[in-house]
Fold this protein.
Amino acid sequence: MTKLRIAGGQVLRPDATVERADVLVDSESGDIAAVGDPDDVPEGDETLDAEDGLVTPGLVNAHTHVAMTLLRGHADDKELDAWLQEDIWPVEAELTPEDVRAGTELGLLEMIRSGTTAFADMYFHEEEVVEAVEDAGLRARLGYGIVTVGKDEAGARDDCEQSLEVAREFDGAADGRVKTAFMPHSLTTVGEEYLREYVATAREEGIPLHYHANETEDEVDPIVEEEGERPLEYARDLDMTDGSDFVAHGVHLDGAEIDLLAETGTSVIHCPASNMKLASGMAPVQKLLDAGVTVGLGTDGAASNNDLDVFDEMRDAAMLGKLAADDASAVPAESVVRMATEGSASALGFDSGRIEEGANADLAVVDLDAAHLTPHHDLVSHLVYAARGSDVRHTLCDGAVLMRDREVLPLDAAAVREQAEERAAAAVERAE
Ligand SMILES: N[C@@H](CCSC[C@H]1O[C@@H](n2cnc3c(=O)[nH]cnc32)[C@H](O)[C@@H]1O)C(=O)O
Ligand SMILES: [Zn+2]
């Protein structure tokens, strides 16, 4: 049995305290074997240096479209509907499985280099995402995104069937690091008749759901007009608010919808950067937390962010949370760290996001030896307000080292970037 000792650093514990401790990782089971005072932690077979560092749970990006890295900077400064229809969807229509593979690998490289160890992906050609995740060593809950608007009956059914197939086929792949979900794109881009029929099937088979909800006002109003109820009430009527389900955005929510999320245990993935960039609005994050809703954090796709750095996202979540609540004490650093770790992990159904014996050994070591992280009054504050993804020294997932001293081990960074660069340029050219 190989045991890896992460030695010499400070460790962020689940109660948000920081203590001088070593962490022993069981590389075979992929779990944390011990954590505590260096004198009490058993010797390891190997050591990973965490001196001048803070060991944190690996960050969890709970809503993204990974291969959209190919569209980073392709179209900016537009609101959601026009941006999707005029700029994004035409290029996505050109993406081949090989393109999605290249964009996914680029995204995984970026995630490993910024301390992210798990994510949720909604996209297409998901078999490529599964293989990329298997090779790169990360953890993911992924699914095929369904859009039925603008499609005929056969096309719409085909999309729904594909999403079910992907969820069935890949659940448990990559030694259990891959889990799946049924993923209707949103409550307005998938027709009610399809939601009714296929959600019931997903429910029977115990498959969780992930979808965009209440992202913009333009998405809320038509549902209120047609259904006479709020989007999440409509979702509940369609059996889409189970405790295993997680929705992205939740920007425009009323009090009854917040209560509904809390009662049903449906998680919300907050995507502050995307919500600001597309001017979608400010999510009522402090209200969600106060109501007891599980809130996770996501970057959304790289084209509306424009990176996959969850450190940036934490800072944005804290800042925007205060503006939204008109209260500087709202969404404090500790809440934000919880969102990016335990909150996101719990939304995705992974036993990650906390440094404790028995939990998944999904970890990051943040280098504190930097001008912008000096002095060390409060390291939780630093994680949210001052640190960046490039401060991460080592990244581990499932007990395996994915980045050591900033060198990514499972991927050839130069080759990945070159492939992505070429394929992105060619796809945009084909679309034009
Ligand atoms: N099967 C569908 C693809 C759906 S994947 C999920 C989709 O979400 C889109 N997307 C990315 N960011 C956002 C967002 O912020 N809101 C809504 N959709 C988004 C993304 O471009 C992608 O097309 C099809 O063939 O069109
Ligand atoms: Zn999205």
Remarks:
- The pocket of zinc ion (ligand 2) is lined by residues 63, 65, 212, 248, 300-301 (CB under 6 Å).
